[in-house]
Amino acid sequence: MTAVFGDVTVSVDDQYVAEVELHRPPANYFDAVLLNGLVDALAWSESRGARAVVLCSEGRHFCAGLDFGRTASPDPELLRSLYDQAVALVDGPLPIVVAVQGAAIGGGLGLALAGDFRVAAPDSRFSANFARLGLHQGFGLSVTLPRTVGPQHALELLTTGRRIDGAEALRIGLCDRLDDDPRASAHGLAAEIAGSAPLAVRAIRATLRSDLREEFAAAVDHERTEQLALARTDDFAEGVAASLERRPPHFTGR
Fold first, then answer.
1. In angstroms, rounded to a whole number, what is the distance separating the alpha carbons of residues 147 and 88?
2. Which ranges constitute the DSSP H helices of the chain?
3. pTM for the complete prediction?
4. What does the alpha-carbon distance between residue 126 and residue 152 come to, in Å, rounded to a whole number?
5. For 161-204, how does the pLDDT look when each residue is reduced to its tens digit (9 = 90+)?
6. β-bridge mates for residue 55, sequence order
7. Which of 64, 99, 145, 245 could form a disulfide with 154 if both were Cys (CB 3.0 to 4.6 A apart)?
């Protein structure tokens, strides 16, 4: 069984595992339309009897978040639409195993952390690079990152914006398994989950994530306010310019 939702494809195999794939290579930048297709694909997976999901991407990188080369500055409606879809994604009923090849950067890291598990390759790269752009973190990372790696690791990653590889991500808990073929390994983990009693899996997951939706929704509301304020600063303009020009930023605090 297969279906297409814009730039998102989905199929369900005989192990009750759905593969949901993003098709915007090489960086798989997202927008509200892509995220809406992802939410629809997950709903379709559930309606076709899937018990677990592998979220993966075509191309070199898992996801580089929002394309600031095309979106010079986030606006209120853009962020509201994006984050409404992000809340719907977190609120979904199926466990999601994310296969991270290449980079998961900025909002792409937020997307990876919206899943339940992450499988990466040794050379995968993770970065919450918002501070290097002069921007507040988004996509619910204020909740999901410390929940995953602990508050101290989260604070360091958010304030430095540094990139870490798969081995360090595994060490601090940012990913759960490491494999040269993260997609195949993600399918293996999803099949293990799908092989357990589905009602029990849903109940266990619902218990452990009982407060996540409310915390996530409150976080993206706050993040949106902070992002809109910082998007008006000189530092944000400098951060985006430096990123596009592949040079160190020179921030002035204005």
1. 19
2. 32-47, 76-90, 107-114, 141-149, 151-160, 166-172, 182-194, 198-208, 212-230, 234-245
3. 0.96
4. 17
5. 999 999 999 999 999 999 999 999 999 999 999 999 999 999 99
6. 20, 98
7. 145
Q: Is 135 exposed, middle or buried (CB count within 10 Å of its CB: 0-12, 13-18, 19+)?
A: buried
Question: Could you tell me if 215 and 143 are in contact, meaning their C-beta atoms sit under 8 angstroms apart?
Answer: yes
R_g of the chain, CA atoms, integer Å? 17
Instruction: List, in sequence order, every residue forming a beta bridge with 103; answer none if it has no partner.
Output: 125
Is residue 159 within 8 A of residue 106, CB to CB? The reply is no
- Distance CA(64)–CA(95), nearest Å, equals 23
Q: Domain containing 86: what range?
A: 2-180
Residue 81 in any domain: the answer is yes
Q: Helix 76-90 and helix 107-114: axis angle, to 10°? A: 20
Question: 81-116, pLDDT tens digit by residue?
Answer: 999 999 999 999 999 999 999 999 999 999 999 999
Peptide bond into 26 cis (omega under 30): yes
Q: Is residue 251 part of a domain?
A: no
**How many domains does the structure of the chain reveal?**
1
Determine the average pLDDT of the residues in 220-234. Answer: 96
- In Å, the largest CA–CA distance within the chain is 56
Q: Any idea what the CATH number is for the domain that residue 104 is in?
A: 3.90.226.10
Nearest C-alpha neighbor of 63 from the set 104, 114, 14: 104
- Helix 141-149 / helix 212-230 crossing angle, nearest 10 deg: 120
111 located within any domain: yes
Q: Is residue 163 part of a domain?
A: yes
CB-CB neighbours of 191 under 10 Å: 17
